From TrEMBL:
GO MF annotation list: antiporter activity
Cell location: Cell membrane
One cellular component term from this protein's GO annotations in UniProt: plasma membrane
Membrane topology: Multi-pass membrane protein
Transmembrane intervals: 7-28, 34-52, 64-86, 106-126, 188-209, 229-250, 313-331, 351-383, 433-456
Family under the similarity heading: Belongs to the NhaC Na(+)/H(+) (TC 2.A.35) antiporter family.
Protein's gene: nhaC
Name of the protein described by the UniProt record: Na+/H+ antiporter NhaC
One Pfam family named in its UniProt record: Na_H_antiporter
Entry keyword set: Antiport, Cell membrane, Membrane, Transmembrane, Transmembrane helix, Transport
InterPro entries reported for this sequence: Na/H_antiport_NhaC, Na/H_Antiport_NhaC-like_C, NhaC_Na-H+_Antiporter
Source organism superkingdom: Bacteria
Amino acid sequence: MRRTPTFLEAISTIIVMIIVVTTGFIIFNIPIQVLLLISSAYAAFIAVRVGLKWEDLEEGITKRLTTAMPAIFIILAVGIIVGSWMYSGTVPALIYYGLKFLNPHYFLVSAFIISAICSLATGTAWGSASTAGIALISIAGQLNVDLGMAAGAIISGAVFGDKMSPLSDTTNLASLVTKVNIFSHIRAMMWTTIPASIIGLVVWFFAGLKSKENVDSKQINHLLDELSSIYHLNFWVWVPLIVIVICLVCKVSTVPSMLASSITAIVIGTLTHHFNIVDGFKATFNGFTPAMTGHTHVSDNAKTLLEQGGMMSMTEILVTIFCGYTFAGIVEKSGCLDVMLQTVAKGVKSVGTLILITVACCLMMVFAAGVASIVIIMVGVLMKDMFEDMNLDRSNLSRTLEDSSTMVLPLIPWGTSGIYYTQQLGVSVDQFFIWTVPCYLCAILAVIYGFTGIGIRKKSN
């Protein structure tokens, strides 16, 4: 007979997952996907204890994976767009002009701003990291900027723009779940996101000033000459970027916008650089390679920059999503998730404790599931009535959901974003963690505001 899990049974799924993942990943360097499956096996054991059958668990996993399909489509589209933008010369152009004009001392501040603008325009942090981010991290390597610092600024900018964009999926999801107008939600987020980002800019500014300027000008000039010989860096290389911005401004969905930009990129690469159009389509699947340029002598430095993209480059991320959603689906189907959230919610006594508990629930869930969408939905639904009972505007809830899930997600090594940024930028979470200042400050500011009343909006009568 099926029963409700005890709190000890429910919380044990999270405790075991954290122990297995941190021990296996950090100490023994076991692939995160394997560790998530081990954690899923324990969660399945608890599910069987409370009366579920394997068929029930399959249903829960399938339901969770269904919610992941929009993210999977975006991931595949990102692989396509990176490969095609390499083919068209769009990303190489970003690298070329970045190397020419970015000052190493102000690189971190510039990286945040550029990445933020890209995310704000496109509504996707992942897309920003895979295009402008790849260019910026490549430039950082050439300018001898610390890659951990650079990745921290790039990721922070990407997440900032994503959070502030009305085109973002998580921004729309948070406003939808809490039934808040999306622009009211964005205005509410400014209370935490802008101060946290200003603090980050100050940190990056002084960190940049202290960085050693040991730029190899000869090597950079050689790379610039090589890029300009491979590509015709004219107006046309920017057209794929212009196409995606126009599509998103016209409210075309993210994936179709990215695919339209990719088709445009293949046309541009073929007509402008005289590359083989067949290679353009191959680049969207297996990624772009220097051999596609027709140049027989390409330096190792240039190869490192150009060998990017393709749907197959997204395989590890997709497998991680499947493994992570397996764990999340079992924990949710067994009722463990509801038990944990309901138990924690009993401690609500004031506005401060309400927001503190909301943040704690989000952090607990995002560390468990490694994805933001589940957190926003589950915690948002659970806490909505509590915010109403305390006469608080629901925008306080929608903001807190993003402060402690969307912003924190890149800092979780086994989460989809942590894996994604690590793979795309080639920098591990432990290297960039401390430099993603806004990502962890937003949750702290949310709690401070809760207890001080700063930025807390009451429900209008």
